[in-house]
């Protein structure tokens, strides 16, 4: 008879280990929609500080030529991009960002190294 209570306790411990926790880590933080406005001579990012998360970048091309927008990690490593954004249009792209420093680069006319804005993710 001593075995039944012992097995019952073990069963409860196993089930307890399977329960989910309501707390979440910082990597589960909700992402933001970040407005980016580009023109012939400007690249404006609505915020320069973001939490660790997956973010959506919403790019509005106010220029008169197609533009490309890139999200770079250090060393010009492309994290995400949106190419050929037509004049007057708005396009989106997403990126999962870890802690660090990034740059958004707008390339009006799809040429050059771009007009860059820094972003810090903490």
What this model shows, in words?
The protein has one domain: Immunoglobulin-like (Sandwich). By secondary structure, the protein is mainly β. The protein contains 1 helix and 9 strands; from the N terminus they run H-E-E-E-E-E-E-E-E-E. Strand 8 and strand 9 form a beta hairpin. It starts with a helix and ends with a strand. The longest helix is centred in the N-terminal third of the chain and has 16 residues. It has a 5-stranded mixed sheet, with no helix packed on it. It has a 4-stranded mixed sheet with strand order 2-1-4-7, with no helix packed on it. The relative contact order is 0.21. 13% of the residues lie in helices and 49% in strands. About 20% of the residues have low confidence. It is globular.
The name CATH uses for the topology is Immunoglobulin-like
Going by CATH, what is the homologous superfamily?
Cupredoxins -  blue copper proteins
Domain count, please report it. 1
Spatial separation of the terminal alpha carbons: 57 Å
Give the DSSP E fraction (strand runs of 2 or more residues): over 45%
Give the helix/strand class: mainly beta
Supply the CATH class: Mainly Beta
What is the alpha-carbon Rg in Å?
23 Å
């Amino acid at each position: 008879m001593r075995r039944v209570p012992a097995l019952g306790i073990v069963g409860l411990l196993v089930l307890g280990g399977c329960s989910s926790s309501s707390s979440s880590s910082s990597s589960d933080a909700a992402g933001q929609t970040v407005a980016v406005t580009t023109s012939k001579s400007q690249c404006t990012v609505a915020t320069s500080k973001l939490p660790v998360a997956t973010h959506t970048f919403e790019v509005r091309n106010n220029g008169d030529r197609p533009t490309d927008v890139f999200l770079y990690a250090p060393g010009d490593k492309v994290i995400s991009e949106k190419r050929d954004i037509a004049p007057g249009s708005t396009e989106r792209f997403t990126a999962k960002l870890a802690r660090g420093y990034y740059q958004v680069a707008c390339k009006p006319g799809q040429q050059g190294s771009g007009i860059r804005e820094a972003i810090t993710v903490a």
